[in-house]
Specification:
two-stranded antiparallel ribbon, 436 residues, mainly alpha, single chain
Length: 436
């Protein structure tokens, strides 16, 4: 470490304590104090590419600041003097810890590059604060999320602020055409807005900067025509879930998460990976027609369970440079198992309780046909994937059978579904590889 690194490791935590104490002493509302602290922290971290010589001192600083934030939460004296700047809101949140982790991670991923590091941090710092202030004071069109409610006005203000934070640096310093830079900024703003609307518990402080870094890595060198196609697909998916929102038993955060998952599947895998997700959503809408008087809605955890099961294989495909139908088979098996678990829950809610084996077989068949056939139909070589249908039915049957042991709690129930479907997909992938 250089002398400047060491000096910064001392000065930044001291400044953090001072800022938190000063904001805590103000007579502002709790949410305003929290966002003011986040804004001050974000502005300070924008200087890191010029302040630190490499990722190591930034990681060390993240550990020190994390300890300071933990002390402000756990120690009574610190909580009274500094902690009210962050912990005065009534909802549970780990946003400040996610923020510290995100800064260190994005700095390491970007190698300290001012553009690739600065835009993600600026989007989180400015757009998140704008959304909170506008949504709190002017929000009228509200939608439910796991944390309570959010507003359409806050989302729109987030999108505009995020677009400005991305467009200005790209136009000034990136070596890209004007049209490509503007489209990249538009995509970053739109996808970051979906992330912000879907996340819960302060997790947007992690996923927004990491997601924006990932998008910059993909879109900086992409031609404008390709970017326009992506913008069109994203707009269609968002419009689709918004039109269907009144018939879906999903809250607003879950619907935004569904659109985000659909776009990710198409962008990373193609139509064969998107088709099963659309089919699952349509199956959900069809099932909800039988629950016209139902008042229960599922939160973003229901989408997250499906997302994790699918993203495992999309990430593996992307990391290995896969193409065509690579990793499509286990992806489909996981999607079939997830749909079977959803179908089993629907049968239970309807009071349709045939014998367990028959119930599992029916749910497994619905999962295999509903999620498997659409993916195989759009595959590059459908015949080579036909084996995935019986394998997927067996996996879906097993998932529906074991789904009897689901926990009633929402988070645990969907975690159980995620682990079960992912394990069955991994088993199918291992067995298929052993026969090659």
């Amino acid at each position: 470490m250089t002398p400047l690194d060491i000096a910064a490791l001392v000065a930044v935590p001291a400044a953090l304590c001072g800022v938190m104490a000063a904001i805590s002493a103000l007579g502002w509302e709790a949410e305003l104090k929290r966002k003011a602290t986040h804004f001050a922290m974000g502005c300070a971290t924008l200087s890191f590419p010029w302040l630190f010589s490499g990722p190591l001192p930034v990681v060390a600083l993240a550990g020190i600041c994390g300890a300071v934030l933990l002390a402000s939460r756990a120690l009574p004296r610190w909580r009274q003097t500094c902690g009210t700047a962050l912990h005065g809101v009534g909802r549970p949140s780990l946003g400040e810890f996610y923020f510290v982790a995100a800064v260190a991670l994005v700095f390491a991923l970007s190698g300290g590059d001012p553009l690739r590091y600065g835009i993600p941090v600026a989007v989180l710092t400015v757009a998140d604060a704008a959304a909170a202030l506008v949504g709190t004071r002017f929000g009228r069109a509200r939608f439910k999320s796991r944390d309570g409610t959010k507003s359409a006005e806050g989302c729109v203000s987030f999108a505009f602020a995020a677009f400005a934070c991305a467009a200005l640096p790209l136009l000034l310093w990136a070596e890209a055409e004007v049209a490509a830079a503007l489209l990249a900024a538009l995509m970053i703003a739109a996808l970051a807005t979906l992330i912000e609307g879907a996340c819960t518990g302060g997790a947007d402080n992690l996923w927004i900067p990491v997601g924006v870094w990932f998008l910059l890595d993909r879109y900086l060198d992409m031609p404008a025509a390709h970017m326009a196609v992506r913008a069109l697909i994203l707009a269609l998916l968002v419009a689709f879930v918004l039109v269907a929102r009144r018939r879906a038993a999903l809250d607003g955060g879950a619907l935004l998460g569904a659109a985000l998952l659909g776009y990710g599947a198409w962008a990373l895998g193609g139509l064969a990976f998107l088709a099963p997700l659309i089919a699952i959503f349509l199956c959900h809408l069809a099932a909800m027609r039988r629950f016209k008087d139902a008042h229960q809605t599922n939160d973003v955890f229901s989408v997250a369970a499906l997302a994790i099961t699918c993203l495992i294989w999309l990430t593996a495909r992307d990391a290995t440079g896969g193409s065509g139908d690579d990793f499509l088979a286990p992806y489909l098996v996981g999607a079939m198992a997830q749909l079977a678990l959803m179908n089993r829950a629907t049968l239970a809610a309807l009071g349709a309780w045939p014998p367990p084996a028959l119930r599992a077989a029916r749910a497994g068949l619905n999962g295999a046909l509903g999620a498997g056939l659409p993916g195989i139909a759009f595959a590059a070589d459908p015949r080579a994937l036909l084996w995935a249908l019986p394998a997927g039915w067996l996996a879906a049957f097993a998932a529906a059978w074991l789904g009897h042991y689901e926990r009633p709690d929402s988070a645990m129930r969907f975690a159980h579904r995620c682990l079960l479907a992912s394990a069955l997909a991994a088993l199918a992938h291992t067995i298929s590889n052993s026969f090659r």
